[in-house]
Amino acid sequence: MTLFDLTGKVAIITGSSRGIGRAIAERLAEHGANVAISSRKPGPCEEVAAGINKARNRKAAIAVPANISSKDELQNLVNETNREFGKVDIVVCNAASNPHFGSMSTISDEAFRKVMDNNVLANHWLIQMVLPQMLERKDGAVIIVSSIGGLRGSPVIGTYNVSKAADFQLARNLAVEHGPSNVRFNCIAPGLIKTDFAKALWDNPEILKRSTQNSPLRRIGEPDEIAGAAVFLASKAGSFLTGQAIVIDGGVTIT
Fold first, then answer.
1. Confidence check: pLDDT of 201 > 70
2. CATH assignment, 10-195+223-248
3. Domain boundaries, the chain
4. Residue 157 in contact with residue 149, Cβ under 8 Å?
5. First to last CA, the chain
């Protein structure tokens, strides 16, 4: 476990009450990290934290609800994590929004701004909040959950894809700025994963068939199939990787 050992590390994971975020939080904790579980609703956060604490037989998780659209709530998330665990070593920017399913030509200004604010600006805020302590320790790992959408065009989730492309560049820029201080920034770019967030893309049999028919693995992914990459990026195993995007899509983008 040495390469992947996260004992003594502390991680914040946004959007971690379900789906990919929950899987990442559970796997980080399994490898020794203390984790802050966060999403908008307190109940689901507390449920996930309680499950992790029971599985680890210690206080390895706390629940700190936060809406990523609120800078004050994100700051409270950081403050509470620092208060409980003393520091933040790892940040996983997983929470995102996609309020519009359809052509970019029909999206309202309000919806466009919401996508960009929640999927890019909120990540920037949270990173700014934890960065000073990482720079002081000359150690830190930031993981942004982007999407293969950031590599492709789409007739139905175009604005979302624009925001996810921006996340790739956010990681690259920050990696250049803060690499000399040993703070690393990377993205995970999942393909279609069976989560509630992506339900519109897999719940419809016709859309699902189109999405998987040219995939080498001929299926969509499960949340836990993304979590291992986060463990890798957060641990010693990923210590020489920065400014990159790891695509986990069952091979969709190679066909």
1. no
2. 3.40.50.720
3. 10-195+223-248
4. yes
5. 35
